[in-house]
Amino acid sequence: MREIRLNAFDMACIGHIQQGMWTHPRDHAADYLSLDHWTSLARLLERGLFDGLFLADVLGIYDVHGGSGDAAIRHGVQVPLLDPMLLVPAMAAATEHLGFGVTVNLAWEPPALLARRFSTLDHLTKGRIGWNIVTGYLDSAARAMGLDRQMAHDDRYDMADEFMTVVYRLWEESWASDAVKRDRAAGVHADPARVARIRHEGPQYRLDAPHLVEPSPQRTPVLYQAGASDRGRAFAARHAECVFLNGGPKPHVAALVADLRARAAPRPIRAFMGATVILGRTAAEARDRLEDYRRHASVEAALVHASASLGIDLARYGMDDELPSASEAIRSNVEALRAAAPRATKRALIDRMVLGSRQPPILGSAEEVADALIAWQDEADVDGFNLSRTVTPECLEDVVTLLVPALQERGRYKRAHAPGTYREKLFGAGPRLAAPHPAAAVAR
Q1: Distance CA 437, CA 207 (A)
Q2: Domain spanning 5-297+361-442: which superfamily?
Q3: Per residue in 13-58, pLDDT tens?
Q4: Within 13 Å and on the Cβ side, how many CA atoms surround 319?
Q5: Which of 61, 124, 262, 336 is 20 to 30 A away from residue 148, measured at CA?
Q6: What is the CB-side half-sphere exposure of residue 186 using CA atoms within 13 A?
Q7: CA-to-CA distance for 163 and 161, rounded, in angstroms?
Q8: Predicted TM-score of the model (pTM)
């Protein structure tokens, strides 16, 4: 039977998806400044046979709601926020199998710098690094980078297509597989004839240089992408190996997955759906835990987050006003909201904010939650789930001790880590991207 794959979905901050949970007395999100916090998390996930830790990131503050970032700062809504890439080496040193999918915005740096960082992490993790490709959606991030506002939605994807062309050439083409000699007797570390300068001149980027890092285990990191707009799906079909989808009605998610698989064919693509689970040893215990958590959820903080990701200042709307159907932020979030409710209103949005987010939790005993996840896989064709934290670390401890065994008993979860790199574990193929992926076209 088809196995469910799990990623933990986290962020190097106090409040990630479920806003307000940091106020719970058992929550340890405030330990995010400690490396011990992250290495302990990595070891827990490895013990639970998780495929990866998916680390989100943004480069601006959430200042859309009410036209100010004050509420985001007050409630710890993804601010303050650490650089997630700097956490990965410590977690990799504490584990052997866990993959790391890191969100990095390509809009604000040259391709050569991003390519070097990912090659470095691919070496240091022994091939367990992945990149969640984003182009950003916050005007506050653009202002932090010296601009007035971000580029238009589709223009950002045009820029991203060119960026990917350049980094593929750096990762796959610059160094031949036999370039590194390490010949001590001859004093030759690498053959310069086998290292090519990458020359590119396009609308957004210019480059004339070799890649600075020798070939890493995967060359190109495992590629994630989270855009579900039409333009985003076109980008995913060309570049992504794994896609991250919002939830919503099963038919809506199933249609997105089917469209993505059809566009990407014949390449395989893994679909991960965002989910939150509340577990108990019994259904009653799970309900009690949910009510305990709900006392700490913050509607205001959730509206701050939603305003930014929807690109809509929700403070300007009455409870029953219809929300706009277009946005220059994350269009797929707007589409998901409209698919989930007959009328996309502020009241409908708040009604879905059970735990301070737009993601209604999957609730029940381990057996009930396992059945629910299996139904999602069977009916919507998702490969797995990105599980967002509630009260940490107990939410993931419950997954490891309760949910994983229930899935294993049903034959729907692995009993051991597969060998190899992150890509090999996910796809059972080689460590490098293969045709017809565009990266393979320049590989040497």
Answers
A1: 22
A2: Luciferase-like domain (3.20.20.30)
A3: 999 999 999 999 999 999 999 999 999 999 999 999 999 999 999 9
A4: 3
A5: 336
A6: 8
A7: 5
A8: 0.93
